[in-house]
Amino acid sequence: MSSSDPPDAAHRAAVRRVATGVAVLTVELASTPHGVTVSSLTAVSRDPLLVGFCLHRSSSCLEIVKSCRGFAVSVLNATQTTTARWFADPCRPRGRAQFDGFGWQPDPVSGAPVLADSLAWISCRPVANIDAGDHELLLAEVVGGSTRDDGQPLLSFAGQIHEANLRAVPARATTR
Ligand SMILES: Cc1cc2nc3c(=O)[nH]c(=O)nc-3n(C[C@H](O)[C@H](O)[C@H](O)COP(=O)(O)O)c2cc1C
What we know:
Elements: H1 9-16, E1 20-21, E2 23-29, E3 32-38, E4 42-46, E5 49-56, H2 61-67, E6 71-75, H3 81-86, E7 104-106, E8 113-115, E9 120-132, E10 135-147, E11 154-157, E12 160-163
Antiparallel strand pairs: 1-11, 2-3, 2-6, 4-5, 5-10, 6-9, 7-8, 9-10, 11-12
Bound molecules: flavin mononucleotide.
C-alpha cells in the first residue's frame, strides 16, 4: 500500500479507539455566541500552557474561532450527553437561541458562554492554526480555567459517546 492510498475501514476503526473527552467550544463574536461540540481537544504544552483541537473545514465555527480574540471550552461531564448532541446538531438554531434552556455564565476573559455543571472550564486565546487534511488544527494558549472537585467525564470512543465511570488506579512502584 502506498501512502497515497485512502485509509481503509480498519485504519479508521483503530484511530477511533483513542478515547478522548468531549467538550463544547464557545465563542462570542459581535455579541453573537456560538457553540460546537468537539472531541479533538487535547493538552499540547505545559509551558506555555497550550491546548489544541481540530475543526472540520465545513464547520461554521472555524472562521469565527480563527478571527476571535478568545473563546471558552466547557469540558462535559458524564450527565451531559444531550448537551454534546445538541451542539453537534447541524439543525440547531444559530446565535443566542442555541443556548436557550442551558444554564451558562459568560467567560470572564472572552465573554463566551460557559455551560453550567461542566466538569471544567478553560478560557483560551488562539495562537496558531495549521492545515490538517479536511480539518484545521488550532492551537490556543490557556488564559483561565477552573474545575469541579467531583464528576466523571463524557468520553468519545469507537464512534460513540460514553458516560465514564472511571476508577483511579492507585500509584505504586513498578515491578516488572
Ligand atoms: C462527540 C462529538 C465530537 C465531535 N468532535 C468534533 C471535532 O473535534 N471537530 C469537528 O470539527 N467536529 C466535531 N464534531 C461534529 C460537530 O460538532 C458538528 O459537525 C457540528 O454541527 C458543527 O457545527 P458548526 O458547523 O456550527 O461549527 C463532533 C460531534 C460529536 C457528537
